Each structure stands twice: as C-alpha cells, then as structure tokens.
Fold:
Amino acid sequence: MSEAVRLERSEIASLEKRTVSKVFRRLIPFLVLLYIVAFLDRVNVGYAALSMNKALNFSNAVYGLGAGIFFIGYFIMEIPGNLILTKVGARMWLARILVSWGIISSLTAWVSTPMEFYLVRFFLGVAEASFFPGVIYYLGTWCRAQDQAKAVALFMMALPVCNMLGAAISTYILGITWLGWTGWKWLFILEAIPAVILGVVTPFYLTNRPSEARWLNDDERNWLIKAIEDESAKKVERKKYTLTQAFADRDVILLAFAYFFWMCGFYGLGLFLPILVKGLSTALTNQLVGLIIMIPYLFAFIAMYIVGKSSDRTGERRRHAIFGMVLGAIGLSGSVMFSDKSVFVSMVFFTLAVMGTYSSFGPFWAIPNSFLTASVAAGAIAMINSIGNLGGFVGPYAMGYIREATESFTGGIMFLVSCLLLAAVLLASLRKAAQRVPQITT
Structure:
C-alpha cells in the first residue's frame, strides 16, 4: 500500500471519527434530556401511587388499569404520528408532542375518580404517541447501522437515569404539602413543567436532516450525507420494501410481538416496583423506597452501555437483545424464590431484573434500521412500537388484577417471567437479525 493511499485512508478515518463524535455530542444529550422528561411523566404515577391510591381509595386493579391504559391511547396515535413526523420534520412534531403531553400530565393532579384517572392516562398516551419511535427513526437518519445500537443505547440510557432521578425527586415531592395540596398532586404538576419548556426550545435546537446541519463543517456534512446515502442504497440492493410489505414482513411481525411480551415484563415490573419494594418491609418509608430504587437503575445504566457497545463492536443484535430478556426473567424468578430471605436479597434479584429488561433496548432497536429504509423504517418502527407497547397495558393490568385475585404478587411476577421468556423465543426466530450488520466504509 502506497504512502499516499495510507494518508488518504487516515484522513478519511479521522473525518469519520470527528463527524460521528460531533453528531453524537450535538444530538444525544438533548434527546436524552427529552426522554428523561417523557418517561418521567409516563411512569411517575408509580411513585404517586404510594400516596394517591390510599387518598383516592384506588385498588391495585384500578391502579394497574389506569397505569396501563396509557398505552391504548399510545397505540391509536403511534403509526399516524410517526408518518406525520417524516412529512413535517422532527423539530416541529417533537415540539408538539412535548407541549401537549406536559399539559395533559399535569391534569392528573385533579383526578378524583377511577374514570377521570383512566381518561387522563388515555389522553396522555395519545399526546405522547410517536415520540419514541420518532426519535428512533430520527437517529436512523443521522447514524450508520454500525453506530445505531450505541446511539440508541445512549439515548435509552435516559430510562435508568430518569428512574434514578425520578425515584429520589418523586418520593421527596410526596412528602410536601403546599397551598393545601398533598405531595402526589404537586408531583404531577411540577414534573410536567419541564416538558412544556423543552417543547418551546426543541424547534430552535434540533436539525431535521444532515443536509441542514450548519453546525457541521462542509467536509463533515458531505461525508455524513454520502455515508447515509451509500448505506441506504445497499439496503435497497438487498430488498426494496414498500410500507405494506414491511408491515407484512415476517421479521417485522416477530419484532412487534417480541416487543409486546418484552413490554409486558418491562412495564409490569417498572410501574409496580415502588409498590413491590415498599412491601418488602414495614420499616420502609416512601423516601427510603425512592433511595433504594435508585440502585437497580444505576446498574441498568451501566448494563445498557456495555451491551450496546458490545453489540456495535460485533455487529450482532439478536443474541444481545435475547441475553437481556433472559436475565430479566432470571431476576424476577429469583425475587419470588427468595422473597422470604431479606430486603437485600430481594433487591439483588430486582436489580438483575431491571438490568436485563433495560439492556436489550440498544441492540433491539438497531434491528429494524438494519434492513429497512427511509419512511418505510419509520412506519415499521411505529408499528413495532405501537403493537409492542400494548404490552405496557397488559403487564401492569395483569399485575394489579392477579394481586387482587390472589392477594399476592407472586402470580403476577411469574406472568411477567413467562412474557420475557416468550419474547426471547420470538427474537430467536428472526432471520434477518441473525445476520451481522455490515461495517460500511467510505
């Protein structure tokens, strides 16, 4: 190899590294901030339930139905919302989502009956629909396949961060009383304000596509545009999908149902974890529960980074995602088998469960973009997410219903275990995701 060729390759490698790094630094921290706010407004009801359920005389079944009905509204608006995003651009659509869900989330403070609770949660789902799949699609327009698991993992590391912050902040707010209003009401109001503020900021910060990125140098922008176009062309060479074909594709359907069962376990655990931990000992106050719950999410944060980085380094997605789901099932099973030992032992297994259910996100969401392109990917991702997130309704509802029917959470937890294992089996049946992602160079 001549010296000139080596120098040229070195310059290209330097340009590639610099551009990818600049894109990550510009987009990921802001998107992480948005997702922290989004997820907090979605799951803070789990912390509010420590006081709200007693104040409003809500049973576990009422709470489980209300917590989960969010995903019915989410399902209805998911695909239309993501297709609208591809037309109007991420900046304006994400801004609309943020402002509307912030306003609706705050209304939870005024609910007093189960029906009011159900309605607010339903319309919160409608308002927030297409945020997550929109961001996944958006990252796919800025990142090559070999960078996507890392990008998604970094973005979704907002989830454990949100739960660490949310556990401490939400349980602290529960302990206050202002203007005659109890803490759980202020929790919904105060935690909704950041969504509205960020909704105003978003159109001025985000850039819709690489060709509009004035914060990149000309050579960086041109390299990124060409890299994304070359990769898209290679996908088309393998198979050009229409939206209808993508919806009917065997692997897309399997991904949707795998995501459904995974989300049964994910949200069934997440939305009941404060209640489960509080039930470990009568000595645990709401504030102490908040501090304890930070521990599993700290380890989940680390696990997401390690698994996402490993998936990108090897180009393998399927087995990495399966690993997390199986680990989640093992952790939940252990929490039942050794529930009579101690708070420490129970928290070890809850920590394993949380680590597992969170660590699959990076490799899982890199799969659709590995064989689908453009708006087809947006529609397919939205379909996978909308069908899958119905599991966010089933999991919490099943936990609440089984708890009321049996006076124990054991049956509900084992239902979640079965869901996680079934999700792993469905992922193991994928064909396209069994192939390693090609490392495209320019």
